[in-house]
From TrEMBL:
GO terms for biological process, alphabetical: alkaloid biosynthetic process
Domain NADP-dependent oxidoreductase: 27-287
Family: Belongs to the aldo/keto reductase family.
The protein's name in its UniProt record: NADP-dependent oxidoreductase domain-containing protein
Organism: Gossypium mustelinum (Cotton)
Positions marked as site (Lowers pKa of active site Tyr): 88
Signal peptide: none
Amino acid sequence: MAQATFTAEDQKIESFRLLSGHTIPAIGLGTWRAGSQADNSVKIAIVEGGYRHIDTAWEYGVQESVGHGVKAAIHAGVERRDLFITSKLWCTELSPERVRPALLNTLQQLQLEYLDLYLIHWPFRLADGASRPPKPGDVQEMDMEGVWREMEGLVKDKLVRDIGVCNFTLKKMNKLLGFAETMPSVCQMEMHPGWRNDKMLEACKQNGIHVTAYSPLGSQEGGRDLIHDETVDRIAKKLSKTPGQVLVKWAIQRGTSVIPKSNNPDRIKENIKVFGWELPQEDFQALCNIPDQKRVLHGEQLFVNKNAGPLRSVADVWDHED
Ligand code: NDP
Ligand code: 1BO
């Protein structure tokens, strides 16, 4: 259940409580493909939009720019302790001895002393310089337990406040829960009305693991254009909201935090104006009934080698659970 907090500008933003007792703001700014504009987008989001949550990753190649944006926001008077900064451990670093150096590198790029949340980006280890799609040998054996112990060590040493995962399946989550001494606080997954992924959401809820919904608008180039979906458009018109706001609100009403990406100042500010009103149950349900459920981020280019494996199909990537 979301709880309300207030930013310095008295804008009400909701947050969710994590297993650790910390809270995660219900809405954050995504930074994948934000490019060199990331610093400006982050600053505008925090200072003008009232965002307190920023989602980034080493793989996005924007951490230095994001760090500049965060620094500018702090310079403008926002306190670091009021921000929630998430980053992710990339696949090439998924061996125990690489975890801490990767985190330290991320902190240096962001110019921060700690992260609020550090996530395993994808549960597959890639060789340095892996091709897309991978050539034979690029997808390697992974010591998940050893990697998780190192993630737990980062919490103990106060370098990160919470740890979690992305792009997991029920099978991988159950395996992780079998050896985790520190529970994953967050599971970040693709979720929007075109890919609800109810099974994973329910499993996480049952284990007290909070879900963050990524690609909530259907993602970017090559994604699914939910902004112009007829159901989304009809509900937006009826409620005098924008399609972006309807999609973000749907995610929050499902109990997930949500991280829409935008580099456009007006859309950044529009996407967070989702508090103080609700989607009526019939509209929420209509969004849950959008047909043609399919993933946008299926991982084929990153991980599938049809001939050499070890992942020979998208179904293999998702443990044949879809
Ligand atoms: P989103 O679903 O957030 O969609 C972003 C696209 O929508 C951009 O093209 C943006 O363009 C446009 N947009 C933003 N707001 C509006 C609006 N109000 N109206 C119309 N168009 C709009 O895509 P992402 O895939 O980027 O997902 C969001 C974030 O989730 C990522 O940036 C990343 O931080 C995270 N993520 C995590 C993954 C993981 O593996 N853990 C995988 C994928 C994403 P413009 O910038 O021009 O506004
Ligand atoms: C390749 C990274 C996908 C976005 O998180």
